């Protein structure tokens, strides 16, 4: 819990933190701990109610409630963490920063395509097609691409793998 509080921005809700986390271990441990606390309260409620009503069914209700709680937590984690298992794109703000970094170079004319994917919590893959100034030589273009990679990494340090493909923007798709 302390680690999650240290990493979670104060302005962000716990639910949003869990949904946007790129490190799966923190939300898993956090939900596991919260589930354990709620489960203990459900068990205590079931046992106390069964004791005072002399009806053992309340103990069963407490146990079933714990099972339902565990199913809900597992389903929530499966839905939220699947993006990290199959590859999740960068945050919209990171994509915007990457696009801005590319377009900030004087030799860039247009970003044709831009795709991102998290390979791990700290490794972002960036693949983009960019239209450059058509007068650049191959040597100049190579230097420009290297400069753009530096600009991208300055904006998004987790962008470790950057692939920039020079291309020409077409107004229509040719067959």
From TrEMBL:
GO terms for cellular component: membrane. It is found in: Membrane. Pfam families: ZT_dimer. Gene3D superfamilies: Cation efflux protein, cytoplasmic domain. Residues 93-164 form the Cation efflux protein cytoplasmic domain. Keywords: Membrane, Transmembrane, Transmembrane helix, Transport. GO terms for molecular function: monoatomic cation transmembrane transporter activity. The chain crosses the membrane at residues 60-79. The keyword Membrane applies. It is a multi-pass membrane protein. GO terms for biological process: zinc ion transport. The keyword Protein biosynthesis does not apply. This is Unannotated protein. It comes from freshwater metagenome.
